[in-house]
């Protein structure tokens, strides 16, 4: 194994391949039982998984903010997560980083026969998406995934997983025919939630609330919207507008705790008129 005195740890030259090998060597050194970092050594797949998810969200956040100067660093953080998991897998004898890269290379070639094979590229993006889904379905069949919903990852954000589950079900005809039926279902679920407030316990109430959220995801799907992206945008807008309220209150020598709902709501409307998003 490379040691911290080797040139690979100090040489910033070289192309992508050389830099990737350097990252792999750095991770191996960090996990070295005798000379590595105690924190890195103590980690396992379960403890690192939340960081992996967090780094992926930070990549998405940088893109949403069009923070291109930050994106390279965020992508690097995400790449580190891949290398971290691969290093732990190699130590356990499961697989190595070469297997990870080799698998995705093979998958991309197999899923793009119109680029790397004999199929014609003369088809629409929609047709290519349909072909992609057929290839993925064949791959799932090869993994003995028999159910329509098999293989939809449990670790996905709940809104994203709901969308993927609904898309899978829709492919076999389990779907409302139009947006109108979805809107009717939203009204029905909202009414059930309202009626349940006084007569149901916390678990039942959470179930009704979950049903409403699930149908809201379906509405987004029928409108061609990504619910996860839409909610991220709504979160960002709320943050920016509330920050506007805080700035305006500070200019008045006040903190939100010293204000009231009427004043803050008026400032919220002012933020909307000012185009704060």
Automatic annotation (TrEMBL):
Record's catalysed reaction(s): ATP + H2O = AMP + diphosphate + H(+)
EC assignment: 3.6.1.8
Domain of life (superkingdom): Bacteria
Keyword terms of this UniProt record: Hydrolase
GO biological process: dATP catabolic process; dGTP catabolic process; dTTP catabolic process; dUTP catabolic process; response to stress; TTP catabolic process; UTP catabolic process
A family per Pfam: PRA-PH
GO MF, one example: ATP diphosphatase activity
Residue span, NTP pyrophosphohydrolase MazG-like domain: 43-116
SUPFAM superfamilies: all-alpha NTP pyrophosphatases
Claim: Hydrolase is one of the keywords in the record: yes
Family the UniProt entry places it in: Belongs to the nucleoside triphosphate pyrophosphohydrolase family.
NCBIfam families the record matches: mazG, PRK09562.1
Name of the molecule in the record: Nucleoside triphosphate pyrophosphohydrolase
Source organism of this protein record: Rhodobacter xanthinilyticus
